[in-house]
Amino acid sequence: MSSLSIEDIQRLLPHRYPMLLIDRVVEVDAGKRILAYKNITVNEQVFTGHFPVKPIFPGVLIIEAMAQAAGVLGFVTVDRQPGDERLYLFAGVDGVRFKRPVVPGDRMMLTAEIDTRKRNIWRFSCSASVDEKLVCEASILCALEAP
Questions:
Q1: Distance separating alpha carbons of residues 106 and 127, to the nearest angstrom
Q2: To pair with 49 at 20 to 30 A between CA atoms, which of 79, 80, 132, 147?
Q3: Looking at the domain 2-144, which fold is it?
Q4: Quick check: 144 and 86 in contact, CB under 8 A?
């Protein structure tokens, strides 16, 4: 298991600000599991409209952050980078449940575990938590784009 810096993450994901939603990978075990985090700050661009009086990080961005963690795990597992002309494309999401809001000041921990891998379709069990309390869980499908 190893950790990845923001520079490492940027080599593995094509996303950039404001859509890069992982700040650091704490540990990654290729072919198995990843633990990453996103620091939620009041300076996030999304809070100008969601919601100015009571900022709440949007659920759709929580799902996107979990999908990005899954993508990093996938790229590490196959030892490829987007520069190899391959991308993990979001193919579906099932069983999404939101348990509590995510707000500025939170450190959102992201986990993804590989459930199944058939050809270029991967299913990941994902979760997001703050202070060890579950905020969201989902099953995420990603498709590895062929070169």
A1: 15
A2: 132
A3: Thiol Ester Dehydrase; Chain A (3.10.129)
A4: yes
Could you confirm whether 15 is annotated as catalytic? no
- Delimit the domains of the chain by residue range: 2-144
Whether residue 92 has pLDDT greater than 90: yes
The predicted pLDDT at position 147 comes to 61
Judged by DSSP in three states, 115 sits in strand
Share of the chain above pLDDT 70, in %: 94
How far apart, in whole angstroms, are the C-alpha atoms of residue 33 and residue 93?
Answer: 18
Out of 50, 80, 86, 117, pick the active-site residue: 50
Q: Which residues of 28-43 are buried (b: 16+ CB within 10 A; e: fewer)?
A: bebeebbbbbbebeee
- Lowest-confidence pick of 29-38, 69-78, 133-142: 69-78
